[in-house]
């Protein structure tokens, strides 16, 4: 894109690269639907993929093609649902030594490839009568070589080893679902307990029975894989069972803090891959934040919800909607940043905030009734979960993160870019220097942008910087390069505007980013800028 010399102050470089790795957005995804035998109901499950486009002119390809809803061009903010018939189905025991946990390593080719011309987010849902589960799908380029397994929750009638009774069909181990999205065969191993290993060919998926071991377990692969933790029919109540399904997040190197939203925690256990807390009561006395160097999953009958660590908070999310169910979203945010949350265009006022004991976080839950909600923060980050419930049967997943860079204008799918160039040139030549790196010399016609840019630029480094402001030699009036009205001024205090025909902004901390006139031929560093792309739904 550029002919830049590379000598640019990349003021926001760290933030911009973080925004690419920490979102749920991508162009390639592999989706599988686990076996859903819930509720003893003769109907077959309805499996759907939801794709939300973030940019206009997004072209989707799904292979094999969906049963309903043909892929087409999507516009920014549009969510399309595609019905799929492809399901993983039963475990195949034929290649296994016996039917003991850890020895069943069953391979299927029932994967679905999604590719997109531009970044999208993908979620998968499976509905079978009352059993509903949804999962966030991590894009292929954000998958990892290592995943920590949570302890297997103890569910009466599902995992207990008691005498066989009538409800025996519900009884069985949890399974790991490991997908190989790459073009090569991948070697995977489950380590830390009853160690096993195997190969998964390109585009295939393995289902492996897992049970508890006394040590913490992890999956390790020689190429990136996706890992889900699942049970096709975990006992709930009233002689029913439901699908349990959650993605495992890639293993991290460090201990992370996971705030637990109180509304879900009341009847839940937290499954920590390096520890186990049975029930909320036992950790409420310490704090509503759990720490783990691995995976933290909230479990309550019918729901496995992967928790979001502080480091992975986002600033903008899309929240889906399942018809005929109670849908809501749960927000966790720092108590000083409750203001600034917006649902669509509307600021979130009058929310009912609950404290997370012993922390600086607060949480709220909001009912949603529209098919597709955009939720964003104008100055901070937060965690958002999509959850739903029907007759005490829960489902949900972390809402897909669309952006991690808060922006006062809205949901920034492509963050703004501000650079002060290293090359000091005349005002006229600076216009070209900015163009050369795909930006433009900044116009500060908008008061909010002036304030925002001022907060982002370093003070007491470079003293004066060129901005896109100039005086017409015909009329003598000041104008902006972007042609917006020059009706909002921010002249530096105590300065008499002199004979200079071009505008500079002062970055001395005492000058509050005030403007001044300057000789256009002086060599000064320019501030180059590109507006964010704001997503609207
Ligand atoms: C996408 O297209 C719609 C109209 O088709 C337009 O209103 C909108 O501004 C476009 N959005 C972006 C981000 O370009
Ligand atoms: C679920 O199954 C029951 C029993 O067959 C049936 O009466 C009910 O209508 C079904 N509900 C849904 C949402 O499909
Ligand atoms: C797995 O281990 C944890 C921690 O020891 C325990 O709380 C849980 O009940 C065990 N699950 C099963 C299915 O035995
Ligand atoms: C999906 O892509 C993989 C390669 O990444 C390929 O091996 C596999 O056959 C594809 N599956 C389908 C259903 O297109
Ligand atoms: C399943 O069987 C156990 C006895 O092992 C019993 O306690 C439990 O209530 C049964 N569950 C259901 C849902 O019937
Ligand atoms: C994990 O830690 C090691 C050593 O501390 C470091 O070299 C490596 O880059 C870290 N990996 C990640 C993914 O952070
Ligand atoms: C963020 O939104 C809140 C509430 O609408 C508002 O008071 C505040 O000024 C906004 N902050 C910024 C940086 O725009
Ligand atoms: C939020 O959760 C509480 C506690 O479960 C519940 O009473 C309330 O109805 C929920 N509010 C919304 C808007 O869903
Ligand atoms: C939910 O519970 C009510 C009352 O117990 C019952 O009438 C209704 O059929 C249930 N709905 C489903 C989908 O099971
Ligand atoms: C400046 O002009 C624009 C466009 O006419 C207008 O929307 C804005 O309110 C004006 N601002 C001030 C401070 O007068």
Automatic annotation (TrEMBL):
Pfam families: IgGFc_binding, Lectin_C. This is C-type lectin domain-containing protein. Keywords: Signal. Residues 1-18 form the signal peptide. It comes from Characodon lateralis. InterPro entries: C-type_lectin-like, C-type_lectin-like/link_sf, CTDL_fold, IgGFc-bd_N. Residues 423-529 form the C-type lectin domain. Gene3D superfamilies: Mannose-Binding Protein A, subunit A. The keyword Signal applies.
